[in-house]
């Protein structure tokens, strides 16, 4: 029977406690940092050589669907009642709204060094030291809204702009495409600065701190953010039932994207699964 992923703003106090406790258990066992390392390993830009699976490619959505599901499966081994909640950043838009409460993810970083000092993931609690992709600091950082260079979260209209596109993705299947749902939700735009970040990418930069870059999994909000992105893919699928993941076939030899993107029926590293097999999650989980 499918379990339910809930809006984080609707969680009860007990549900919050169980979710936090399960995350801290994975961290204590060393399992959580494996997820951080995996995301760093597969954070390949389209300016680099080789296969891209997690970002700047059609498989952005199925790759992260499986990635969140892997974390959720690990959490449910700790506590079968737990599922990953989603953060609706079109509605909960301030640094004091859900999920930035002391009983869940804690709040913003302090002004001096962006260190998170509230909530269960604050460094002073001793339960959430950062071990992957760190330099001098091993504490969680955030800069909600970017105080020195303010940026706004995506709006409902930003999300609608992506959901209205009936085509999943288009050639050249990278960060430069201007049409297709995949890049409109992933959020790579032309130029530089805040105007070039849309939807998913813009949220990462609004949170700031540890959420910027390949090690963004160091901040637990990563999972709530990507659960909401996954929900948008589900909504797009329902709205455009005649359209599916593209490309359906691999780019031909001689193409710039030959062996650089995953087609619908090709295996999606690091798992033995295809995008086609990840399109339907209804037997595993559903959204409230």
What would you note in describing this structure?
- It is a single chain.
- With about 290 residues, the protein is an all-alpha fold.
- Helix content is about 30%, strand content about 0%.
- It has helices at about 15-30, 30-40, 60-80, 155-165, 180-185, 200-205, 220-240, 275-280; strands spanning about 5, 285.
- Strands 1-2 form a two-stranded parallel ribbon.
- α1 packs across α3 (about 60-80) and α3 crosses α7.
- It starts with a strand and ends with a strand.
Sum this structure up briefly.
32% of the residues lie in helices and 2% in strands. The protein has 288 residues and is an all-alpha fold. It is globular.
The unreliable regions are: none
Binned, the helix content reads 25-40%
Shape: globular
What is the count of helical runs? Answer: 8
CATH architecture: Orthogonal Bundle
Secondary structure elements and their pairing?
Layout: E1 3-5, H1 13-29, H2 31-41, H3 60-78, H4 156-163, H5 181-186, H6 199-207, H7 221-239, H8 275-278, E2 285-287
Parallel strand pairs: 1-2
Helix pairs in contact: 1-3, 3-7
Key features?
single chain, 288 residues, mainly alpha, di-copper center containing domain from catechol oxidase, two-stranded parallel ribbon, 32% helix
